[in-house]
Amino acid sequence: MPLIRLDKYISERSEYSRSRIKELAAKGKITVNGVTVKKSDTKIDAETASVEVLGTPVAASKFRYILLNKPDGYVSSTEENDGVSVMRLIPPELRKKGLFPAGRLDKDSLGALLITDDGELAHRLLSPRSHVPKIYIVKLDKPFKSKYIDIFNDGLILSDGTQCLPAKLKCAEKSDKLAFIELHEGKYHQVKRMFAAVENHVERLMRLTVGGLILPEKLRIGECMELLHKDVENLFSPPDFDDFCTDFISEFSAFMLNN
Predict the structure, then answer these.
(1) Which of 163, 170, 187 is CA-nearest to residue 245?
(2) Domain 3-57 falls in which CATH fold?
(3) Is 2 a residue whose pLDDT tops 80?
């Protein structure tokens, strides 16, 4: 039975400092399994304890995984050197020390962004060796051309000579100015540069999947949700691209066309 100090347990799973936890415990503001605990160094069972601080449950998992539907205008960073950080969109009840965006979306791009404090998982997710696929929907300035499919599939060369890995591409059924693209890498402004290489322009870009993590239609732009353990396990089991594009019926398409 793994025992852990109460203050360590809470500090690892929240934004509370140990000094603040000690203060709240002394005031009777912390409960373990429904019983008030006034000493922050009390040992508890990390696997079974139900802990509340100021009446709010403390997440049992040591790590936290949050899916954000990123709006444009926010930077995918914990720093604010280049704009407002996406971390400001995380509600207080989901915040804890050490959270960071696992990957990036351009400031003017939208969609699925994983935020976590699990460095090992993030490293695995972002490692070039993993080749975790990501599916995007893009709004184009000019109509989609069927020749793009083979060009992208062959491994497009960007204007600066950068070689891209083969990418899957498909025109959306709703409009010839909407297209899906699946990448297995994440070069700087890659999607925009790939379409620029075929003399088209990306007006809007939204990421729909990260591996097997699919952006729910109910998750509105700017909102986030905490992921379940099974969702995290599915990260490395991506959907089939063709099936995903065929089944994709979402208000996201309407949003892309109208904005």
Answers:
(1) 170
(2) 3.10.290
(3) no
